[in-house]
Amino acid sequence: MLKALDSQYVLPTYARQDISFVSGNNARLSDDKGREYIDFTSGIGVVSVGHGNPVVSKAICEQISRITHISNLYLIEPQAQCAKKIVEMSGYDMQCFFGNSGAEANEGAIKIARKYGEINGEPKRYKIITLEHSFHGRTITTVKATGQAAMHNYFGPFPDGFAYARNIDEIENLIDDHTVAVMIELVQGEGGVQPLDREKVQALATMLKAKDVLLIVDEVQTGVYRTGEFLASNLYDIQPDIITLAKGLGGGVPIGVVMTSKKDVFSPGDHGSTFGGNYLSTVAANSVLDILESYKVSGELDEIFIYFETQLKMMYEKHADIFTALVGFGMMRGLRVKDADTLGSLINNSRENGLLMLKAGRNTLRFLPPLTITKEEIDEGFKRLGHAIAAL
Ligand SMILES: *Cc1c(COP(=O)(O)O)cnc(C)c1O
Q1: Which of the chain's ends, N or C, has fewer CB atoms near its CB within 10 Å?
Q2: pLDDT tens digit sequence for 130-144
Q3: How far is the CA of 125 from the centre of ligand 1 (A)?
Q4: Where, residue-wise, is CATH 3.40.640.10 in the chain?
Q5: Across residues 175-184, what is the average pLDDT?
């Protein structure tokens, strides 16, 4: 039995459901018992162009039948093309470094900021301010950057130099002579789909620029059209110094990117990654970017976002006894549920009714469907959510 095999040989870091999926088609999944599901999670914001996407699948297969990996000691054509696409689509004058995950992208961002603080004047600046309820990853440094005390219970001693602001207003007070950067998510994902206030973020960006403190925007979850624009930084109309991407970029193939306008901070030898930016991951990302860019340009992306929002709003208004707020942008959405127990039951009921849903923070029902979800799949998903609510 698969469950027994998993329990015997895989370390128990996840509370896994006893379901094994065997195939998928856009926002639909099938398990090994022949049950069919609507996926409102897209593998936590990863499968941005849907399961089994034929265009991405073809691009990957063609690439790996020739070269999968060579190493960063040589030029890698799809990597350079991918960097060009990301930079052009972002509208920022930046360069990219490729890794394999969100945490690794954030590690790169922290290294760029720390070196910038080291080579730009006295005293040496190294402190990075992040927000409470943030999430920046699971490595020792990014878990320390994460503003959730519960995640710092073990694993110490941690690297020094992180401070946590309770909210965006408090950031300025925490800045001192040693502060080199502020790192934020424009919409906190894991923290509960909590968008930051646009005007406050713009004021923060202006204040940081004046103080020569770098603004790092963690777009691991918000990036690659999740909020409707290519980057949430575009939506907020700010000019960050460093941006990180990962989840939705490779359509399921592991990839992480740190991009920065501080192009001359890193020199050869300062940073690296064995797998980062190889042929497999960058060909996948190029394919995903092409699909989503033309989807955006044609107006289809905006149209489906509006459709999704309309259905979500109807669900929210119909069940005012359960939901207390509708939050987020684009296809990164949440419904605040009146209490955590109801949320747990709702997610279980959804699964039993053939709908995959996520939790965020303490009491948020999180929606992260594939960006290519169809109207028919949206309708079916909300129908099943209705059944899940009825069964509460
Ligand atoms: C998921 C996530 C990360 C971590 O990404 P991994 O690929 O799991 O390392 C970092 N930051 C944000 C905002 C995320 O949502």
Answers
A1: N
A2: 999 999 999 999 999
A3: 25
A4: 57-297
A5: 98
